UniProtKB/TrEMBL annotation:
GO MF term list: nucleic acid binding
Superkingdom, natural source: Eukaryota
Gene3D superfamilies: Ribonuclease H-like superfamily/Ribonuclease H
Domain Tc1-like transposase DDE: 14-89
Pfam families, A to Z: DDE_3
Name assigned to this protein: Tc1-like transposase DDE domain-containing protein
Alphabetized InterPro entries for the sequence: RNaseH_sf, Tc1-like_DDE_dom
Length: 105
C-alpha cells in the first residue's frame, strides 16, 4: 500500500463512516502512527483539507495498537503449529484454538 491508496481508503472508509454516524470531520480526533504512507505530504494535505484533527504521534514510539500485537503473537504460534493448516477453513479453526488457549499442536 502506498500513500495514494491510503488516502483513497480514508476518502472512502473514514469519510463514509463519519457520514454514516452523522459526524463531521471536525468532531473527531483521528489517530494513526508514523508509517511513511501516513506521514506522506499527499495524506497530510488531504487530512488538513478535510479539517481533520490528527492525534500527535511521537516518532519511534512503541506500537500501542493492541490488535497488531495480538496478530504478531498468533503468527508466532502458527509458525510452530503442527499439522500446518492446508486451507482457509483449517487456518481459521487453528486461529480460534490458539485464541482460546487450546493449542493442541
Amino acid at each position: 500500500m502506498d500513500a495514494k491508496m491510503y488516502r483513497h481508503i480514508l476518502e472512502d472508509s473514514l469519510l463514509g463512516t463519519l457520514h454514516d454516524h452523522r459526524l463531521g470531520p471536525s468532531t473527531i480526533i483521528f489517530q494513526h502512527d508514523n508509517d511513511p504512507k501516513q506521514t506522506a505530504r499527499l495524506v497530510q494535505e488531504w487530512l488538513e483539507h478535510q479539517n481533520l484533527l490528527v492525534l500527535p504521534w511521537p516518532p519511534s514510539s512503541p506500537d500501542l495498537n493492541i490488535i497488531e500485537n495480538v496478530w504478531a503473537e498468533i503468527k508466532k504460534r502458527l509458525e510452530t503449529y503442527r499439522p500446518r493448516p492446508r486451507n482457509t477453513e483449517e487456518l481459521w479453526r487453528v486461529v480460534q484454538k490458539l485464541c482460546e488457549g487450546k493449542e493442541g499442536s
